[in-house]
Structure formats: C-alpha cells, structure tokens
Specification:
The chain has 194 residues and is mainly α. The chain contains 8 helices and no strands. Keywords: DNA-binding. This is TetR/AcrR family transcriptional regulator.
Length: 194
C-alpha cells in the first residue's frame, strides 16, 4: 500500500471518529509513520485531504449500489428495490469507516465545507435517484406498480433508505435491523403496488 493510500485510510477513520476539527494532520501523519510535511506531497491542505476521502467514500457507495442496475433484466422491480436496501446494508457492513464518514458529514458538515459537501451529496443523490426511477418504471411496465406519478414514489423510497441508514447505526443486532428493513420495505411496496 502506498503512503498516499495509507494517508487516505488513516484520514477516513480519524475524520469519521473525531470529526474534522478534532483531527490534526500531525495525527494522521503519525498513524501512517511519516512526518506531517509529507502529507503536502499528496494533498494541498487538510481540506483537500478531507474532501478527497469524502468524495471517494461517496463514489464507493454509488458504485456498490449501481452494480444492481445491471441485474435489472434478471429481477423484477420488487426484488430489485429490495436488493437496493440489502445492498446499502451490505455496504455499511463492509465499509463501516466510509459509511460513518459520509453519514457524519452529510448530517453535520463543517460550516465552511457545507456547500462543497452538499454538492458532492447532490451528485451522489442524482445517481441513486436515477437507479430507483429505473426500477419503479420497470415495475410500471411489468404491471406490479400501477401507473402513477413517479417522483412521489422515488422520494418515498429514498426516505426509506435514509431512515434505514440511521437505523443501521442505532442497532447492532443484525436480526433487529433486518426486521426493520423488511417491515419498511413491505410497507413501502404495499403502498406503491396497490
């Protein structure tokens, strides 16, 4: 692993755990085993390092969820939408540090980075929205979802995702989380399919 990659990994974990203001570049450097000035060989400043790891974490999540769109033809809309929620859960389990970082700063961004973080989030949200739209439109084509306005269904599903994201960090029990996921999805599906 390169020094640059080690710096990003240490930064991701420390920014997620301690916050932007609570993490010093010297602390990141120390964890990697380099002197603080070595960071400037790769990153302009603390903000540049932070935004690099934040954007990479968002991109990693998007890539993970987008892999589902290739399965659209194989699965029906209901199963595809359920798999989006399952895929989100898998991402949180496999990429905990990235998940903590993104959730922390989307909800509580440092004031001077608020606009930059919001823009990164909106880019990510646009990609996710298009995937959800595809699956809901597929459901309308299949006849499993009655023809209706698309936007309210997409917004409702994204809210289910957001709620489940918070639930993941509240509950350590896999069984409790999966129960909540299944109940939330079943309620959503019963509403959109009737």
């Amino acid at each position: 692993m390169t020094t640059k990659q080690k710096l990003k990994e240490a930064a991701m974990r420390l920014f997620g755990e301690k916050g932007y203001d609570g993490t010093a570049l010297s602390e990141i450097a120390k964890e990697v085993g380099v002197k603080t000035p070595a960071i400037y060989a790769f990153y302009e400043n603390k903000e540049d390092l932070f935004m690099t790891v934040f954007r990479e974490a968002m991109d990693s999540y998007n890539t993970y969820v987008q892999e589902l769109s290739g399965e659209k033809k194989k699965l029906g809309a209901k199963e595809s939408l359920r798999r989006v929620l399952a895929r989100q859960y898998e991402f949180y389990q496999r990429h905990r540090e990235e998940s903590v970082l993104v959730l922390r700063y989307v909800v509580f961004p440092p004031v001077f980075l608020k606009e930059t973080i919001e823009q990164a989030f909106l880019n990510s949200d646009g990609l996710l929205t298009s995937i959800i739209e595809q699956f809901i439109l597929q459901g309308m084509e299949e006849g499993s979802i009655p023809d209706q306005s698309l936007q309210p269904l997409v917004d409702a599903f994204l809210n289910v995702m957001d709620g489940l994201a918070m639930q993941y960090f509240y509950y350590t029990s896999k069984e409790v989380y999966e129960r909540k996921l299944n109940h939330a999805f079943d309620t959503f599906w019963n509403g959109v399919s009737s």
